[in-house]
Amino acid sequence: MSSPPSREIYIKGITLDGQTFRPSDWAERLAGAMSCFRPEGSAADRSSFIGYSPYCVPRLMGGVKCVIVDQALRDAEPMAWEFVMNFARDNKLQVADSM
């Protein structure tokens, strides 16, 4: 039995040539720029304006800063998806379907 396709993309803070990406807060900045993109029907309470979007969250994984991007963003906000993917491409960051 095959497993379902990954629903998350991991943008790693490591460039294609193996260098650590700078600035050191890049993941928080990228996720912060995406914080307004939320699933339809999300509660519009105070907490929805203070945290990251569930579609795009920064994480430290194995000592590497990453941004985890839920593929649901592609359907919900195609331009936001393109922005995030272009950020990774333009900065030559490693992108993986799983960690």
Explain what the structure shows.
- It is a single chain.
- This protein has helices at 26-33, 72-76, 78-90, and strands at residues 8-15, 56-61, 64-70, 93-96.
- The protein is of the alpha+beta class.
- The protein has a single domain, classed as Alpha-Beta Plaits.
- The longest helix has 13 residues, at 78-90.
- The radius of gyration is 14 Å and the shape is globular.
Keywords:
4-stranded antiparallel beta sheet; alpha+beta; 99 residues
Can you describe this structure in just a few lines?
With 99 residues, this protein is of the alpha+beta class.
Task: Tell me, rounded to a whole number, the average pLDDT.
Answer: 87
Number of domains: 1
Intertermini distance: 21 Å
Topology, number of strands: 4
Any idea what the CATH superfamily is called? Uncharacterised protein PF12112 family, DUF3579
Query: What is the chain-wise order of helices and strands?
Result: EHEEHHE
Strand order of the largest sheet: 2-3-1-4
The appropriate CATH architecture is 2-Layer Sandwich
User: What is the fold-level CATH name, i.e. the topology?
Assistant: Alpha-Beta Plaits
Q: Tell me the strand percentage band.
A: 25-35%
Unreliable spans are: none
Summarize the helices and strands and which ones pair or pack.
Layout (H helix, E strand, L loop, with lengths): L7 E8 L10 H8 L22 E6 L2 E7 L1 H5 L1 H13 L2 E4 L3
Antiparallel strand pairs: 1-3, 1-4, 2-3
